[in-house]
Amino acid sequence: MANTETNHDMEQSILKVAEQLFLDKGFNRTSTTEIARVVGCNQTLIHYYFRTKENLFNRIFEKKLEQIIPQLFELSQQKVSFLERIRQVIEIHFSILQQNPKLPRMILNELGTDPKRTEWLRSLLLEKAKPYYMQFEEERKQAIQNGEIRPIEPITLLLDILSMNAFIFLVYPSFCNITGIELGDFEKVAETRKKEVITLITNGLRP
């Protein structure tokens, strides 16, 4: 039992350190040697738990998705208007980015330059999120038919949400440097931005 707990703790330590290094330096500039050094273990243990650096990177993405899926499931069980559904989706996505502010930049840097990794992520999203997307699509069609929202393609709506939410996290390092505001102040700005995104998108959907 103790050995099992120790193995789990070591695996989680490796994941935590690897995630931070990948976020800070990117996939190519992070080595398993450096991960092992920061964790305080030997490199053999990295390969024992994850085999390759690619597997370790992929596992981190899987963990992020595993954090989102329960929230999507809970959301899918609620009977609300489509505009309220959109507000909730924006809230969930933005909150995840607030907890992982470096994630959007890493996704752009890494997935945009590696077709295999991009295809892997696409397959993972299809596997895990497709049921929720299908429900979202049915609700969108019904909302248009009922006159609750104007006609809009699902990809356009999702891109609006993803891009408007992610933008502030992509520019915030430069934004802070240029304006001289501190991170604590930025968190207040981000919270205000979340409310603004909700207002802009929901108002823009009304007929």
From TrEMBL:
Q: Keyword Hydrolase on this protein?
A: no
Q: Which residues bind DNA?
A: 31-50
Against InterPro entries, the record matches this protein to: Homeodomain-like_sf, HTH-type_TetR-like_transc_reg, HTH_TetR, Tet_transcr_reg_TetR-rel_C_sf
Q: Which SUPFAM superfamilies match?
A: Homeodomain-like, Tetracyclin repressor-like, C-terminal domain
Annotated HTH tetR-type domain ranges read 8-68
Keyword annotations from UniProtKB, A to Z: DNA-binding
| Pfam families xref list | TetR_N (PF00440)
| Gene Ontology molecular function | DNA binding
Q: Which domain of life is it from?
A: Bacteria
Which PANTHER family would you find in this protein's record?
HTH-TYPE TRANSCRIPTIONAL REPRESSOR SCO4008, TRANSCRIPTIONAL REPRESSOR
* Stated name of the protein: TetR family transcriptional regulator
Q: Origin organism of this chain?
A: Coprobacter fastidiosus NSB1 = JCM 33896
